[in-house]
Amino acid sequence: MGKLFNLKEWLTIPEAAKHLSNICAEEVSDADVLRLGLDGHLKLSVNFVNHARARRGRPIPFTIADCFKAISSGEYPKDLKWHFGDGTLVKALNPQLNLSDEDAKKADVYPLSLNLDGKRFLTLEDSIIILKGIWDLPMIGGERLDIEHEYQYLTGGPRVTLCQFDGGALVESEDGTYICQLQESFDDNEYEAGSLARLEIIKGKIANKDVTKEEGNKLLDEHKERRKVFLDRQKENNEAGNQINNYYPAAGLPSDGVLVVRTKEIRAFERRLLGEKDAEKPLTTRERNNLLTVIAALCNYSDIKPQGHGAAAQISRLTDDIGASLGAAAIKKYLDDIPQALESKKK
């Protein structure tokens, strides 16, 4: 392992391929690195060289089965956003069911939070933030399709025609506390009337003489009027605190984002490849049960039910308060083990 490698926090895909080739004593290509990422063996990341805009949220442990339970009981976790309809549309689409107003209204409830993977949901904040530096790829949204497309391109495979995940392209913080949905400005959308991107299309048509001079001038005049409407709408959204309405979910990673691999991920992959165990000594069962019992006692003192809906998210927010953030998903893993730990202490 070179001295420079130890000083670097991340490597580009070609650099990672070269490094792994030396470690494995066999050729590892850029495509191989991407495949390792797609198959879950190596965490890939992206470096936002020119920054990126996004909406942030915390992944909440919540399954599809939990959704049905919540709707059936009428107890809806506050960490998720819900749609509560009046049942009119449900009755109109299902006249053969002869639903009562109450049943139709109950059937017109569903989560607005993004379903990430059937086990976690994501409630996005109503604000736009700027992402800088390195962010990891969770490989569940449009970012996965981008990597798959690049892999197929490098290996001469078929064109990727799969539709994207409804939530667009996602990235996550290094500790997994936050998952962000990448955003694009409507001003960069060439199909949006009055946008700068649309103006560039018009200029291109004029430059290529795809339209006559008169037609070109007419298109420019129309764009000028639509631009005023566009800017007024954006201003209204900003003044009303609805900045998110000036953006929409990005289908993929930005073109100026550079795919990288954190060096710590490469080291972890090397250890797994060589069958080496981490230097850190794992907790014994007794030590783990003791710590879980302490957590259970603190939860009881704070009136938090470890197995209750939203408990992990509540504790996650408490970790924020002390400046040592932990994601709800990571916390829930420990909370789920508490009943067994308490049972072992009673034996």
N-to-C SSE string, H for helix and E for strand = HEHHEHEHHEEEEHEEHHEEHHHH
Low-confidence stretches: none
Oligomer: single chain
Q: What is the CA-based Rg, rounded?
A: 25 Å
Number of strands: 11
Percent of residues in β-strands:
15-25%
Q: Can you count the helices?
A: 13
- Biggest sheet architecture: 9 strands, antiparallel
Total separate domains: 4
Through-space gap between termini: 49 Å
- Which secondary-structure class do the elements indicate? alpha+beta
Shape: globular
**Estimated helix fraction:** 40-55%
Task: Determine the mean pLDDT.
Answer: 91
Can you put this structure into words, describing what you see?
This protein is an alpha+beta fold and 347 residues long. The chain has helices at residues 3-7, 13-24, 30-38, 64-73, 88-93, 101-107, 142-155, 196-207, 213-239, 263-274, 285-301, 311-321, 328-346; strands spanning 10-12, 45-61, 82-84, 109-111, 114-115, 120-124, 129-136, 170-172, 179-185, 247-249, 257-262. It contains 13 helices and 11 strands. The strands form 2 sheets. Strands 1, 2, 5, 6, 7, 8, 9, 10 and 11 form a 9-stranded antiparallel β-sheet that branches. Helix 2 (13-24) packs across helix 3 (30-38) and helix 11 packs across helix 13. The model has no long low-confidence stretch (mean pLDDT 91).
